[in-house]
Write a structure and sequence with these properties.
Blueprint (H helix, E strand, L loop, with lengths): L7 E5 L3 H10 L3 E6 L5 E6 L2 E8 L10 E5 L3 H16 L9 E2 L3 E3 L3 E7 L5 E7 L13 H15 L3 H12 L8 H17 L3 H12 L5 H6 L1 H11 L1
Parallel strand pairs: 1-4, 5-9
Antiparallel strand pairs: 2-3, 3-4, 6-8, 7-8, 8-9
Helix pairs in contact: 1-2, 3-4, 3-5, 4-5, 5-6, 5-8
């Protein structure tokens, strides 16, 4: 016996067309769409199917809806999604709604990125990097733990002020120093958060500090995702 799980995600009724267009840009096909007596759409990409139902008073800004998609090639999907969004919107949207987040290795054993549609649903796309990614303890080392917690606050909880507070605290420590790679990652993440919060000048200063960190070739390889995000944010 085979079962299939199909996420059903809310959508502000007036945004149904823009939501469908968003998923079309990601390479989904629309297999069902109705406007009356209520809005409902079904989009599919390979084995992934999402169903969206309309709600007249739904507030995208307060949405906590979403689902997780596991893949065997998260890098290729991230590249394809960014390319599709750039073609559809003329740019890669990284703030507001809709948006696509950076690709990064999480400390709990998953390489992932987040994409959020125009009505606030967040789809997490990840590829396990460990045989046992579940229930891994948070790192104990000060700066590794800060990165772990800040990522969770920024992405999983969508709590940008909370993430900023975590990073600001450890960057202000005087009795401990992060490694160059850790400092780069902390500054890039903090700069990213500042941009998303509309703190343009603060973001520029943080990203300039990140750009000034000197890394050897091995460190550059280790920080490849952060360096790519830095280039994007500075671009």
């Amino acid at each position: 016996m085979t079962e299939t799980t199909i996420p059903m995600l809310p959508c502000r009724t007036s945004l149904i067309d823009s939501v469908v267009a968003f998923y079309t840009a990601l390479g989904f096909g629309t297999t069902y769409l109705q406007k009356s007596p209520y809005a409902y759409a079904v989009v599919e990409r390979g084995a992934v199917e999402l169903q969206l139902y309309g709600m007249k008073e739904y507030d995208p800004a307060s949405s906590h809806s979403g689902c997780y998609v596991l893949t065997e090639d998260v890098d290729s999907l991230h590249t394809a999604f960014r390319s599709g969004l750039k073609a559809a919107y003329g740019r890669v949207p990284t703030r507001g709604l809709p948006r696509i987040g950076p690709l990064k290795d999480m400390s709990y054993g998953v390489r992932q990125f987040l994409v959020t549609d125009p009505t606030g649903n967040t789809i997490r796309i990840g590829q396990p990097t460990s045989d046992a990614p579940n229930h891994r303890p948070a790192p104990k080392e000060t700066f590794a733990r800060a990165l772990h917690m800040a990522d969770l606050f920024a992405d999983s909880k969508q709590d940008l002020p909370g993430a900023a507070k975590i990073i600001d605290r450890v960057l202000g420590l005087t009795d401990e120093e992060p490694t160059p790679v850790q400092k780069l990652r902390l500054l890039v993440l903090r700069g990213d958060i500042a941009q998303r919060m509309g703190e343009t000048e603060r973001a520029a200063g943080l990203l300039e500090d990140a750009e000034g960190i000197r890394l050897d070739s091995e460190q550059q390889d280790s920080a490849a995702d952060a360096l790519a995000r830095l280039a994007e944010l500075r671009g």
